[in-house]
Amino acid sequence: MFRIFNSLTINNFPIMKKICLLITFLTLCVCISAQTVNLPAPKKDASMTLYQALQQRASVRDFSEKAISDQILSDLLWAAVGINRPDGRLTAPTAMNSQEIRLYVCRTDGAYEYIAKDNSLVKVSDKDLRADVAGFQTGVANAPLFLVITADLNRYSRKSDHSKVMGAVDVGYVSQNICLACEALGLSTVPRATMNAEVLTKELKIVEDQLLLINHPVGYKK
Fold it and tell me: How far apart are CA 199 and CA 188, in angstroms?
């Protein structure tokens, strides 16, 4: 009996190995797919003019629970720091074109990093971090999503004593883009610095010399 079992095991090992490899591959594909959200192409066609957006821009801290569609989110993220030219340059300027801005989306199903070149979201945490981004200002915690803006100084070709200043300036450009795009898209927001930096550093996998500076709760006005 042992000889028969041993013979079957040995003879079928190549087939079993192939089956195991196939199962592993399919599992990895499913996991990767679940971790990446491919956003629809941004429309870039808001009817509101720049000056109308400037006229109407205002900070809002009270949001309805109405969900934001992936299409609207795509439009907003592209305006914030998306690619607007064939050479890969962005809607927001960055020092030495270092493109050091790293933008995160925190919503009920987890936290994602926005990848401009693919117009996609890559999951970095399964946790709903909105309360941690809100911090002690709990009134904004019900916003359907938060955008967290960081400057990764490791992307600079050279660092200097001025690097943190320029990183902060570049984050400011993105924050302004978000403010104006929200007005044009019928959304509301407010730029904030308050957040639970310790939790976000861990969950967003913030690295050394990546500045965690500003966040925006985003939603429809209540």
Answer: 25
Under a CB-based contact definition with an 8 Å cutoff, are residues 103 and 81 in contact?
Answer: yes
Confidence check: pLDDT of 16 > 70: no
Contact 152, 207 (CB under 8 A): yes
Buried-state track 10-47, b at ≥16 Cβ within 10 A, e below 16: eeeeeeeeeeeeeeeeeeeeeeeeeeebebeebeeebe
Cα 34 from chain centroid (whole Å): 15
DSSP symbol at 161: T
Burial of 77 (0-12, 13-18, 19+ CB in 10 A): buried
Confidence (pLDDT) at 46? 86
Provide the token pair at 141.
Answer: 């915690």
- Residue 63 has what DSSP assignment? B
Q: What are the strands, taking DSSP E only, across 108-192?
A: 110-115, 120-125, 145-152, 188-189
Distance set, CA 5 to CA 16, 141, 200 (Å): 14, 61, 54
The torsion of the CA quartet 55, 58, 64, 65, rounded to 10 degrees, works out to: 100
pTM over 0.90: no
pLDDT tens per residue, range 145-163: 999 999 999 999 988 889 9
Looking only at the bridges linking them, the beta strands covering 101-107 and 110-115 are antiparallel
More confident: 15 or 173:
173
